[in-house]
Target: SH3 domain-containing protein
Amino acid sequence: MNSQVCLALLLSMGSVYQTITNAVLMEKLANSKTCADDECSYALSLAIALDDFMAPDCRFINIKKGQTIYVYSKLTPEEGAGVFWSGSVYSERYVDQMGILGYFPSNLVKETVKFKKNTDTVMIPTTDVDFYCF
Model:
């Protein structure tokens, strides 16, 4: 291996290590969530943003009014807590946000298409990894 390839490999490994060591565990938003499958890898529904939302930290995503959001999970609200869903924004106008998964307030969106009936969903516990900030 030439020295430039070795240097590039070491730098990229250092970058990965730096990212992992800078992860911060954030407060849990809920103890369980509803998903389409055991890994929350399939979308439950499509929603349209009714208003803008600016993410307060890295657990959340920014949404703009009119954007389409794929909803992957719905957190089970704790007493006195807000109701948050997780999803990914897809929009031609905000390409830089496409594919980023995060939480947003459910009251700021309107579900337009449901892919799964409530009886076909699974409720699973959240884990600490659900709330890490990188």
Observations:
- Strands lie at 24-25, 32-35, 45-49, 68-75, 84-90, 101-105, 109-114, 122-125, 132-133.
- The helical segments are 3-21.
